[in-house]
């Protein structure tokens, strides 16, 4: 992985850092690791924050090796949180984190993983840049922002009093020039590149997919949770890149039935001819699922449950649930804007996969997929549920290899740490697949 590093001391320190990540120990920050390795922690800190080695080159070799080793059947996109106590770490802000299950002070990272049921590995990372770390998101006097991706910030936020009524949130207004100066100071202190700006997480995922394509790595199929799957622009981005997908979505996603067809409106004799339109408004996919009814569900088994820790080598049973699939035509403004300008107004059709436990009054989960019409229900379910491997990655990276133990504040330091942690995980994965009984090293 370090073959591209020109200096011998850099290659040696890289291997030493990996060894520190894989040794036993509660903390995998630089000082505890240096103590276990018997070296000065300044050596590790300099390697991460001020050395000149190419982190992108290492990450490219890790990704290529991971794909060759695992032969993935699916790529997974997701994000994870890194709780922080202070405000100085790069891109830390009060934001929602699934790791915390609430809004908290944290960093958010978006990742792409290669996976099969037997193994998985991270291919790429991006650190999310919040609006509070981008001066182009500061509104001007008219409330407009220069960043086209940023939402208009609320000028008068409100909170709830004890009676549950809205009341003004009392806080000191910071002048615009002072806000910009504060953001620029934080960016300079953390050494954020000038071209790293706020954009949605789904856009960062597409950027990583394009970067991996530049390394001649392409997903056989991509899956993601509803935070990405509900975004029509993300699904369209995958379609434009020729990437098949099966992504979770929310019950409020709108669609037309699969057999719906647009009709031509009468020409008024003036102006351009009207575009064909669907005769009825789009429904939510929840409504379409309720119209089909729970009687359409079929019991599907998708994989063996992992053995429990107290049950030895015996399998702990089979994971199963009740599902059905419908052909639908996703609707909405973003979908319509993605249609050809000279087309006939026909929305693209796709699969809607629905999970509906028989003891529930309504479905619990929904997925959209552009897989072929002859795809079986069991195959749709198996692929939709393949995201479970990513939780294994995050758990191993954080609890075993110190992914979230980095205490530095710089942008490049964070990216180098997560790249090295990913390399350590890939080494462990390789051992599990090729030599699971390999002895440890002192």
From TrEMBL:
In terms of InterPro entries, this protein maps to: IS701-like, IS701-like_DDE_dom, RNaseH-like_sf
Coiled-coil boundaries: none
- Pfam families per the UniProt record, alphabetical: DDE_5
Residue ranges constituting the Transposase IS701-like DDE domain according to the UniProt record: 1-306
Tell me the protein's name. Answer: Transposase IS701-like DDE domain-containing protein
